[in-house]
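Continuing from the previous page of notes. For each protein in this section, the sequence appears first, followed by its structure tokens. Read the first protein now.
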Amino acid sequence: MASEKRTDMNMQGAAEHADRMLDAVLNAIEPEVQWAHGPTTTGSCDISRRRTVMTIVSAERRGSFLGVVDRFWRKSGYRIKAINNSTEVPAIYAQTNAGFGISLVFGGKGQAFFEVDSPCVKESDVAESTTRPNGPAYEDVYPLPRPNVHSDFWSAGAI
């Protein structure tokens, strides 16, 4: 299945779909977290869109954060493929019925990374996302800084 090319969508359409998926999950997180765009990458027939959470999510709150995302993805009809309960790099991986993969992975300093990977689609040019980040855009900054936004809720217990 994964190797079959979808002919009803091109890479730009897949990127826009990925943006809608990322917008939806980030809008479901309460209280709100600040995020910035990560790099968009393209393969021979697929695209990946990324968003990096700039809000500090403390070790004590990561389970709650993962739980909010898990419940939202299940409610959205996504199939949970794997959960990594690691204290170092907790993560959750899901897939839509349309073959899009979505993940949330925690990295260093509690930084959360969302990524959507498309199924194989028709090749096309891919424009940058039109969704505006809810904080600094960090244009032409790579790698992005570590999380640097304090939240009374999500950052509770962080030093």
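Done with the first. The second protein uses the same format. Note its length before scrolling.
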Amino acid sequence: MGAPVRTTREAWIEQGLAMLAAGGPEAVRVEALANALGVTKGGFYGQFADRHDLLVAMLDTWERQAVDDVIRGLSTDHSDDARENIRRAGAATMSHNRMRPIDLAVRDWARRDPEAKQRLRRVDRRRMAFLKSQFALLYDDPEEVEARSLLAFCLAVGHDTLGTDSKGRRRLIDVALRIVTD
């Protein structure tokens, strides 16, 4: 018989992020994770010291995916690409794909947890810095750069939280972003 297959650290983190998105940090429990992965709890402790260690690793992964991986995929030093970079970065981090539910869950978690709040602030500062770097390629006035960055960020973060529903919401968001970037 071969050695048992170990569940990777990444698999635990990804399952933890999925559970966070579905039910908040309270849903991220070792036993529930093990059941979802089809393994025993013992394997968890081979990868993490405790649940807190997993939560920190989940925030690390979320930050890397939401900021580093997104920016790495863009050309950030040409003004002719700046508008497209702003649009693509927003779509990558705030669209209704896998990242959006995680981002919303982290925002909710940050309302109750100082460590999550600190991480969210850092991620938001990094996202704003990226937006400012792109808008600075388009506009000379630092105040205008700051204002356009803030509007674009608020649009990306807040569009889902509105209580209104519109059949053409995606189109309206695109129009609003075009207004902010033109």
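What the second structure shows: The chain is about 70% helix and 0% strand. The first helix runs from residue 9 to 23. We return to this in next week's lecture.
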